[in-house]
Design a protein that fits this description.
- The structure holds two protein chains of two kinds.
- By secondary structure, chain A is of the alpha+beta class.
- Chain A contains nine helices and 21 strands.
- Chain A has helices spanning 38-46, 94-104, 109-122, 138-150, 168-184, 196-202, 220-225, 230-235, 326-332, and strands spanning 3-11, 14-22, 27-31, 53-58, 61-65, 70-71, 79-82, 156-160, 189-193, 205-210, 213-218, 239-246, 249-252, 257-259, 270-276, 281-284, 294-306, 309-316, 320-325, 339-344, 349-353.
- In chain A, the strands form four sheets. A six-stranded mixed β-sheet of chain A has the order 7-8-9-3-10-11, sandwiched between helices. In chain A, strands 2-1-4-5-6 form a five-stranded antiparallel β-sheet, with helices on one face. Chain A has a five-stranded antiparallel β-sheet with strand order 14-13-12-15-21.
- Chain A starts with a strand and ends with a strand.
- In chain B, helix 12 (232-242) runs antiparallel to helix 13 (244-264).
- The chains are: A alpha+beta, B mainly alpha.
Amino acid sequence: MTLRADLVLTLGRLHLVVALEAGPGEVVAVLGPNGAGKTTVLRALAGLVPLTAGRVELDGRVLDEPARGVRVPPEHREVGVVFQDYLLFPHLSVVDNVAFGLRARGVPRARARERALQELERVKLRDLGGAAPRSLSGGQAQRVALARALATDPALLLLDEPLSALDAEARTAIRRELREHLDAFAGPCLLVTHEPLEAMALADRLVVLEGGRVTQVGSPSEVGRRPRSRWAAELVGLNFYRGSASGTAVALRDGGALITADGATDAERGEVLLVVHPRAVTLHRERPSGTARNVWRGMVDGLEARGDRVRVTVTGEIDMVSEVTAAAVAELDLGRGGAVWIAVKATEVERYPA
Amino acid sequence: MRVPAALVPGPRGPGRVLPATLGLLALGAAALLIVPLVGLVLRTPWSQAHQIVTSPAFVAALRLSLVCSLAALAVSTLLGVPLAWVLARRQFWGKTLLRALCVLPMVLPPVVGGVALLLAFGRRGVVGGPLFDATGFSLPFTTAGVVLAEVFVAMPFLVVTVEAALRAMDRRYEDAAATLGASRWTVFRRVTLPLVGPALGAGMALCWARALGEFGATITFAGNLPGRTQTMPLAVYLQLETDPRVAFLLSLVLLVISVTVLVALRQRYLTVG
């Protein structure tokens, strides 16, 4: 059970060119900002939006291939979808919602209901079978939507922002539960989200989608450590730069230069990406005299509290965010702004090929 | 900025007179609408009511009206819902024109509709001529003619109501149903129709009320034959000459039905929102 998709399509101002693969039991998260085309990816896989080119193949069966005139309609795709607002049918009870797919396939009413109740049992909602969807909480609706999608034994499971309709409190519990259900699902699973935490917690692999293109594919820790786009870097809270390296020095595209620990050999020239963790960026009112190789002057631009830490945005030759303690803010009197010295050790600059 | 004193509404200025004037005019409007109905109720010959409602003329008109209006409702629903669906969901050339023509009977004088029906389905009409030549059957002056006239006048009410609901509904429910394996027809039957159900009910009620009250197109196209084409509104008109008491009671029945329909639709038209 493997999904192989090459999606090419234009929808309004969105031009989508996306290649995806997901193996059996694998959970792939498509992570991207709003308007990147995430939902369109799901709709295209489900057959709700036509491709202009490319190909979708599931378990060796071609679902979509415009060049050969193949387009399997959604009702024959064996794809389970959990929609963003869950879209439980308001005129049907919970159990009838879950039984809908089986009934549509011609399964007799009694057997469809029995199976639906089993699915509800799995999400621990059997008691709510007779309830109306509108009486459910967000978390319950999400589980019913999942049960409904799984009741037809789909070959592929798609989830659109599965947790975004929930309040922060419900999210943590539901996320853990969802993870269990996704782990139990044997086929490939694709979920789209703009929440990095959701993606990191649920997925085995991330696909970063920006402006209709894939900017990075990798494991959650890979994307978290070495993001390949500014958007992804900001998501995980890293300072991100592009530049061209010559030796250990990297001239940044937006001006300035940083010394890195890597790159002593001549082979490591060319375009590179750099990330610096804000905690590795120190601030000083006087010019620091330590071992830091990168020292420059900047202006404090803004403060933002993050738990017991404060993120300080400093503009200058190189714009950088530094994360310091509240005590440091007081000590350096950063609240009044003004000029500061910034220091970053070369070993704290993570460098990887562009 | 200073405002000239003359423009500041004083306690007896235009600001006071205007609401009072509007209130009086509103009262006049309400009276204009309500007084006739009060008159109808007050002048109903209640003491002879039982005798009148069991009279053959009354029973015949009532029966025919119910049969024809319900038949018209059935035809309008069967044909009008698909028309509403096509207008709401399909894109094609000339759609705007088609919609305009389909709702035209709502504003067309019914008598003009009757004339048009006669010219189309009459014994020498565009369609009616060949039909008569082929089968010897002709619609005018038949009960079927009454139904046709009522459908012509009443179906647009159902079409516009259902079309608006189809446009307003969240189509992603249909997508969800399709991904669950439902065919187009199953989606329509088990998701689309139930979701527009309230609007369909309202459209049917409006359609039925309009069919029941149909006068102009019916009398023009189907004539005024007791027991065959003489529906309640036609009987009211005729009985005013012969037996006004029957006319009054028939009118009262129509009023009660109208009130009932309005109450049934209260969610749509009586709730201020």
